[in-house]
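Hi there,

I know you've been waiting on this one. I reran it after we fixed the sequence typo, so this is the corrected version. Both the input and the resulting structure follow.
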Amino acid sequence: MKPLQLSWRKKLRYALFVFVIFYASIEVVARVGSYLYYDRNPYYLLYGFRSWTNDEGEGHSHKLEGYFKFPPSETIEYGTPEPCRINNHGFRGADFDAKKPEATFRIVCLGASSTFGYLNRDDETYPFVLEQLLVEANPERRIEVINAGIPHFTTDNILAALEAELLGYEPDLLTIYTGCADAVRPMAENGLQAMCRKLDEYSAAYAGVRKAVNAVSGPLLFGQWTNYMTRMDRDAVARQVELHTAHTRVNFEAIIAATEAAGVPLLVIRQPVTTWPDRLERGLVEEGGWRPGYEREYQGLERKLQNRGWLLGYEIMPYVHHHLIAVMDRLSREHGLVQVDNIALVSERPEGLGTRVHLTSDANVRLAQALAAAVQPFIELDQ
């Protein structure tokens, strides 16, 4: 009897079938192994179907279409001086009704961890302080400010949450405070990197391999938490600027279009960042020493890039961020959007940034005061 001859198509299908079974087996082992290793944390069994707030899965949250929120009606700890309250809709702050109460002026604050209040207690975030200021200034009106800031939210996530949920809460005004989350990590430059990032999002097996390899070699394998290379030359930095600005421009235009279609005004807050904590950690500056403002820091980075031809990894985020702010500034002007310049406010008192991007409680008060002045005309027009 002649041996069975398989066509190349059947061989390919067979090889693919074997690969899928093999990879599925490895995936199961990775999920169950991680589940047992991390004290039976169900996050690892549900990897890819729940999201997280750090690389260990602490603070993980329910994942929705294009964005994630915290589980509702819980008290959590996430970079805050004390546990913070998550409301009935999965955002930080007091509970609220999905249907806006009558005679209420409702403001929804869009953003990431700086809006959420990473360094702040519940009564120190700028959305909380803004509501207190507006209630005091308008005793005859019911004012409601919803903190819709979620840590790690990019403009992709903000757009998804806006379209799927936030416009449904009938806001009279939206504020947006963003930029850092879009700039903080490199964008994929080719299809292979993009595929690796997607695998890292949904495959526990790949995520485990990525962590092991990168622990030895540096950021070699691409993933969701991949950092910029330790040093990047002028051309590499330029590619990242081009990719980031194009991506953020599309998202910001879509956010503006969604708010215009809904007839809801959008107020843009200019967000500052700094390299100060990175330089302090490296002993390049002294605690309590003089700190430059946002524009001076960027000018220094521009000089470094032009003179030496490269930037260090921690310098790239603020460099890219400056270009994203320029994109948002231009679109804000084109659409006649009101802006509140927190870059200028923090540059006057740079100690208002407690980390690369997060505001201290005092800086939140100053921002809330500037916001209250900008929001008041919208309230008066609504009467």
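Quick highlight: The radius of gyration is 23 Å.

Best,
R. S.
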